[in-house]
Design brief:
The chain is mainly beta. The chain is 11% helix and 32% strand. The protein is built from 5 helices and 20 strands. The strands form 5 sheets. Strands 1, 2, 3, 4, 5 and 14 form a 6-stranded antiparallel sheet that branches. Bound molecules: magnesium ion. Magnesium ion (MG) binds next to strand 6.
Length: 317
């Protein structure tokens, strides 16, 4: 099952995504947010709609987490490229929900930063409450699905501050989507790729995680309760680097699709890759072709109903 979140007539909806005549389209509205399904998304009531092609939809972030928990340095080669030791236990930090950016949105570079970097990552959406999961407990039932995340980072501020809240937390610094999908297996390996202006910059596989997804979820749950809908960013492969205004950044994950960002020529406003692309089950070596099939959507501002009580997008459904 794959779903997105989209705006229609000022209302935000979750939509079931299926292939229609070879193109991904929204074919049903989920009448209950998937994070309220207790892990049984298939049981949710839906309403059929006239199919809306993904590239025609006004996409919103497909997640509304209470928190975004990120894992740093979870690939050995990435730790080495920034001159860091390989951690002996998971290294955690937060991004605020206000940093979420909808597919097709624009990443805005803060004036106080001279270097802003992409970090393509596998995102994990929590299905049901996790609290002190014991060793050996199977964590798969706690996972609702997977999505593309760009852990966008003001690298100079990260190095300057020590604490990472500022460097990781600016509005628009968490492009996510375009869909959440189940049926992936990070334990056996999922390819994660980031491209800038069509050129591959990162290519890693989750089989190379230093800490497996099960270890990560059990570790986090010893510290804080993970709630349904919470988002985990699982770390980035080697190859991080800066992007400039006008660049197009894409995060592609095998089995999910491409999250494409566009940066405009303004020195101040970086267009960040969006999750513009419909999901796809095609193998990774077809991602380039997939990206060529997409067009950019109109720009949306980052939106989070929980953070913006006056948002034009009311609480879901
Ligand atoms: Mg990261």
């Amino acid at each position: 099952m794959k779903y997105c979140r989209f705006q229609q007539n000022t209302q935000a909806h979750y939509g079931l995504v299926e292939s229609v005549a070879g193109r991904d389209a929204i074919v049903r509205i989920l009448l209950t947010p998937p994070e309220e399904a207790g892990g049984d998304v298939e049981s949710l009531r839906t309403r059929r709609i006239e199919p809306i092609a993904m590239e025609e939809a006004i996409l919103l972030p497909p997640v509304t987490p209470s928190k975004i928990v990120c894992v740093g340095r979870n690939y050995r080669e990435h730790a080495a490229e920034l001159g860091n030791e390989v951690p002996t236990e998971p290294l955690l930090f937060f991004k605020p929900p206000s940093s979420l950016l909808a597919p097709g949105g624009t990443i805005v570079r803060p004036r106080v930063s001279e270097r802003t970097d992409y970090e393509g990552e596998l995102g994990v959406v929590i299905a049901k409450r996790c609290h002190k999961l014991p060793d050996g407990e199977d964590t798969r039932p706690y996972i609702l699905g997977y999505t593309c995340v760009n852990d966008f980072t003001a690298r100079d501020l990260q190095n300057k501050d020590g604490q990472w809240a500022r460097a990781k937390g600016f509005d628009t610094f968490c492009p996510v989507g375009p869909v959440v999908t189940e049926g992936l297996d990070p334990w056996t390996g999922i390819q994660v790729e980031t491209r800038v202006n069509g050129e591959a910059r990162q290519s890693g596989n989750t089989r190379d995680f230093i800490f497996s997804l099960g270890v990560i979820l059990r570790y986090i749950s010893q510290i804080m309760t993970l709630e349904p809908g919470d988002l985990i960013a699982t770390g980035t492969p080697k190859g991080v680097g800066p992007v400039m205004a006008g660049d197009v950044v894409e995060v592609a994950i095998e089995g999910i699709g491409v999250d494409r960002l566009m940066k405009r020529s303004s020195a101040e406003a970086l267009r960040h890759p969006k999750s513009l692309c419909p999901s796809s089950d095609r193998p990774l070596n077809n991602f380039r072709g997939l990206a060529q099939n997409f067009r950019l959507l109109p720009t949306h501002l980052a939106e989070n109903p929980r953070q913006q009580p006056n948002s034009p997008f009311p609480r879901l459904l």
